[in-house]
Amino acid sequence: MAFSEPMKRWDVVVVGEIYADHVFSGFQRWPAAGEEVHAEHYVRELGGGAVNTACALARLQHRVRLIGLIGEADRSWFETRMQGFGLSADGLRSDPLGTGVTMSVSTAEDRSFYTYLGANRRLAELLDDETIRAELIAARHVHFAMPLAADMAKRLFPLLRKAGCTTSLDVGFSPDWLTDPVNQWTCRAVDYFFPNQTEAQWLSGGESAEAFRNWASFMDIRHGVIKLGAAGAAAVVNGELLHVPPPRVDAVDMTGAGDAFDAGYIDGVLNGESTQDCLRRACICGALCTTRIGALEGLPDSFSLRSIYEQTYGT
Ligand SMILES: Nc1ncnc2c1ncn2[C@@H]1O[C@H](COP(=O)(O)OP(=O)(O)OP(=O)(O)O)[C@@H](O)[C@H]1O
Ligand SMILES: [Mg+2]
Fold first, then answer.
1. Does residue 72 contact residue 57 with C-beta atoms inside 8 Å?
2. Which string of DSSP letters, residue by residue, matches 15-52?
3. Which atom of ligand 1 is nearest to the CA of 194?
4. What is residue 109's predicted lDDT score, i.e. its pLDDT?
5. Closest atom of ligand 1 relative to the 52 alpha carbon
6. Distance from Cα 177 to the centre of ligand 2, integer Å
7. What ligand 1 atom has the least distance to the C-alpha of 282?
8. Element containing residue 309 per DSSP (H, E)
9. Average pLDDT per run of 10 along the chain, which is 315 residues long?
10. Which atom number of ligand 1 is nearest to the Cα of residue 247?
11. C-alpha dihedral sign at 36, 40, 46, 47
12. How many angstroms separate the CA atoms of 284 and 263, rounded?
């Protein structure tokens, strides 16, 4: 950082949809309409990519602000859970629509989701709020974990660039967003773009990482990074794919692996590391996330990130 650059209040501001996840598992079968079936297990956890990435970055000791909307009734739950990661809930606004809810229901073979958007409906309005804008420009890096609308991106990105913030985007599984040409501007404007393999396919029309490379090169994407599940990840650098394998782990639950990956990559960016190093940190965070049930329990701290890094890739 140049000596004259003013100290930013936050390392990262993460913006996106926030959910209360209700995870029911161990059903023997799917019920017919009007029937009741009983779950073997139930857990309630904070959810949504924004929460997962913010918690992961806070655990890596960055100064993180999470911005989004919840119902007031859930505030103390969010405060307590986020505190465990060294993250304050003060960036979360309360809204009468209540916290968004995702219900995940699974048998041994299948999983289905039921979602209520709740307060997340007001996210676009929130981003037009002057106080929130001030929080965003007070960050070194702003990560959007949401299908950011094109008009909002066009308003925000020039402001952020002018304030010296780098940016990243994970739109999640949003076929409508990914296939709408209006969003190509956003893909080009963001500094780091993080689709997974399925999302990349919606963009490029092809299944392979090479198809993503061709699309990203043609579109002039600044840093296109594709997440490849157990095969790791690849970044497009000067028209070529730079591939990094993940550490070998006993994966038990993939929930949130992509969000943890984003955090690891941003950790590298904030530390001024090379693309290869950012990919390695990201792959470690994604892989470790899969070793525990849920998105939050497996997230590494800086110490375990460093030790797995050395074991996997050498020093
Ligand atoms: N089985 C695995 N073994 C090792 N690493 C894994 C495994 N699964 C995922 N990862 C790591 O986590 C990263 C993200 O996983 P994935 O490609 O599934 O993202 P995603 O589909 O966006 O996930 P999410 O469901 O959270 O949105 C991968 O790029 C990889 O580095
Ligand atoms: Mg994802």
1. no
2. EE--EEEEEEEEESSPPPTT-----SEEEEEEESHHHH
3. 22
4. 84
5. 26
6. 14
7. 31
8. helix 302-313
9. 71 98 93 95 96 98 98 98 98 98 90 95 96 97 98 97 98 97 98 97 96 98 98 96 97 94 98 98 98 95 98 92
10. 4
11. negative
12. 10
Q: Which residues, judged by CB distance below 6 Å to any ligand atom, belong to the binding site of ligand 1?
A: 196, 227-230, 232-233, 246, 249, 251, 254, 256-259, 261, 283, 286-287, 290
DSSP of 119-131, one letter per residue? GGGGHHHHHT-HH
CA of 299 to the centre of ligand 1 (A): 13
Query: Which pLDDT score, from 0 to 100, does residue 138 have?
Result: 98
Q: What is the pLDDT of residue 108?
A: 83
Residue the block writes with tokens 């960050």: 139
pLDDT at 6: 65
Task: List the residue whose alpha carbon is closest to atom 24 of ligand 1.
Answer: 258
Quick one: which atom of ligand 1 is closest to the CA of 257?
26
pLDDT score, position 315: 75
CATH architecture of 10-18+49-98+120-313: 3-Layer(aba) Sandwich (3.40)
Q: How far is 180 from 174, CA to CA, in rounded Å?
A: 10
221: which 2 tokens?
């994407």
Three-state DSSP class for 68? strand
* Strand order across the beta sheet in which 10-16 lies: 92-94, 64-70, 10-16, 139-145, 166-169, 192-193, 223-227, 233-237, 240-244
Q: Tell me the domain boundaries of the chain.
A: 10-18+49-98+120-313
Residue 130 CA to ligand 1 center (angstroms) comes to 36
Ligand 2 centroid from CA 256, angstroms:
7
| 3-state secondary structure (DSSP) of residue 165 | coil
Mutating to test ligand 1, I would choose from 55, 173, 254, 279 the residue with most ligand atoms within 8 A of its C-beta, which is 254
Q: Report DSSP state, residue 293.
A: S
Q: What are phi and psi of 153, to 5 degrees?
A: -60, -40
Q: From the CA of 183, how far away is ligand 2's center (Å)?
A: 18
CA within 13 Å, CB half, 201: 8
